[in-house]
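Thought: the user asked what DUF4126 family protein looks like in 3D. I have the sequence; next I should run the structure tool and report back without guessing.
Action: structure_tool
Action Input:
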Amino acid sequence: MDLSTPALAAGLGWAAGMRSMAAPALLSRALEGRRRLRQPADALHSTLARRLLTVAAAGEMVGDKMPGMESRTAPRVLAGRIASGALVGAAAAAARRTSLVPSILAGAGGAVASSYVMLSVRRTSSDATGLPDAAVAVAEDVLTLALGSVLARRVAE
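Observation:
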């Protein structure tokens, strides 16, 4: 099934709502080797961007498990997730040579929705299973990487 660019952007935005740096890092990796991309996809696919985003994504995944981390729905944290969703939406549209605005909005919207839904899922899962929050967070990391990888590859096709 061929997904529209805004649908892919919304999915990548969803991944950004779970882990803000993972979505751009995965898209950067998926775009590796592509030539003559429009901005911002071209900037994301550079070697430097790929390395920095990978380090940032790994750092975010570690930091997420630390006590005292701000909630993903705190205004400045949510703003970062929205920006990440908008960025991957714009990059997806640029890579697929489609209109930017619908994909930017879809990516940002996906990030907002995911931030709230996944916060609730994480709390509910931890409460229902008795697992520590960090264990549920690792499962969320795996889900983020799986979803983001599949969608990023679809964008780069």
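Thought: the tool returned a structure. Summarizing for the user.
Final Answer: Structure for DUF4126 family protein predicted. The CA atoms of residues 104 and 143 lie 22 Å apart. Residues 5-156 form one domain.
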